[in-house]
Amino acid sequence: MLRRRNVNFKTVTEFDAFPKIPETYINKSAVGGTFSFLTFCIIACLIVSESFYYLDTRLNFKFEPDTDIEAKLKINIDITVAMTCSQLGADVLDATNQNLLGFEPLTEEDTWWELSSNQRTHFDALKHMNSYLREEYHAIHEVLWKSSKVAFMSEMPKRNIEPTTKPDACRIYGSMNVNKVAGNFHITAGKSLSLPRGHVHISAFMTSNDYNFTHRINKFSFGEESPGIVQPLDGDEKYASDNMMLYQYFIEVVPTDIYTLLKTTKTYQYSVKDYARPIDHQKGSHGIPGIFFKYDTSAMKVVVRQERDSIIKFLVKLCATVGGIFVTSGIINSFVQSIWYIMTCKVFKNHHNNEDKKSLLQEQSVANTKPIVGLDLVNIQPATIDVTINSLK
């Protein structure tokens, strides 16, 4: 059976299961307030810094064996040669003895070698930009990889005014998907004719005076365009000092897999060495005049991964940082408070001692200056004593 009890609501409201520190135990001081303000400022700065560090990504580079041997190699070409298209032939021959007839044909377009003012400005800017990127690549490669710029220069602009003369150059451009083996892409005099064991270029009706392999490379790359990859041959321009010039580019193609936070790209980057010499059979310099790009793929590939700390690691680092600052500031605050307390105690103690000495000296001086009054024993009045006797009843 339940009994009704009188409940004091004041007691219930004052009831608290968690003990609180009395207000008298909390010492408020200017030093403690200053340390608290500085602590909160440092914590805020570190939180902002850790947040920016978490949002920023890091790049991890490593080498791995390239096992994708059946993939195709895409070659992107845009070259202008100072000969008409009827006098030139572009072809590719790889280790499998396949030539250009087995791949997508390139586009040939008659044009003029001399660029217009706007085209020359564009090409000079491309040459300067590519030269700067090659020289300063190791200093800015992370900026390039993290940027969203897949091409730092746009396509060659069209001419404002076309010359009245006949075209004297040929622009060869396009893309080819070739086998992922060693190959040779070349541009030489005469159209190519396919044979069972290779091909030949028919140039029987041309003389050495018709040869001019001065050329300009607007684009030469492998695979898809990607930020961080610099194409060494873009913006290259060679002027032939002799009609029978042989230009050779020895290219090492490196497969590159790029894994970013948003997408995955499989592309290629390359290094190149170039060599040029005139063909003179009488002096023992044999060969075929033309422009030859001899490429080979590497057995190793570069894997680029864009990484970022996990959210759990970020929160743990954030808590550790805040807790460490609190503990460190508390230790420094206690140390400074102790030093301040010791210094203030000594000062107040010396001050009180000085005050006590002054008061004692003042009392002694007052006692010494007070006149001594004599005692008159003759004129002392007798004391009257009132005694009342109560009778007993």
Automatic annotation (TrEMBL):
**Which InterPro entries does this UniProt record tie to the protein?**
Erv (IPR045888), Erv_C (IPR012936), Erv_N (IPR039542)
Membrane topology field: Multi-pass membrane protein
Q: Which residues form the Endoplasmic reticulum vesicle transporter C-terminal domain?
A: 158-332
Q: Where in the cell is it found?
A: Endoplasmic reticulum-Golgi intermediate compartment membrane
Primary subcellular site in the record, as a coarse category? endoplasmic reticulum
Name a single GO biological process: retrograde vesicle-mediated transport, Golgi to endoplasmic reticulum
The record's section on Pfam families has:
COPIIcoated_ERV, ERGIC_N
Can you list the GO cellular component terms from the UniProt entry?
COPII-coated ER to Golgi transport vesicle; endoplasmic reticulum; endoplasmic reticulum-Golgi intermediate compartment membrane
PANTHER family, A to Z? ENDOPLASMIC RETICULUM-GOLGI INTERMEDIATE COMPARTMENT PROTEIN, ENDOPLASMIC RETICULUM-GOLGI INTERMEDIATE COMPARTMENT PROTEIN 2
Q: What is the protein name stated in its UniProt record? A: Endoplasmic reticulum-Golgi intermediate compartment protein 2
Native species:
Aphidius gifuensis
Lineage of the native species?
A: Eukaryota, Metazoa, Ecdysozoa, Arthropoda, Hexapoda
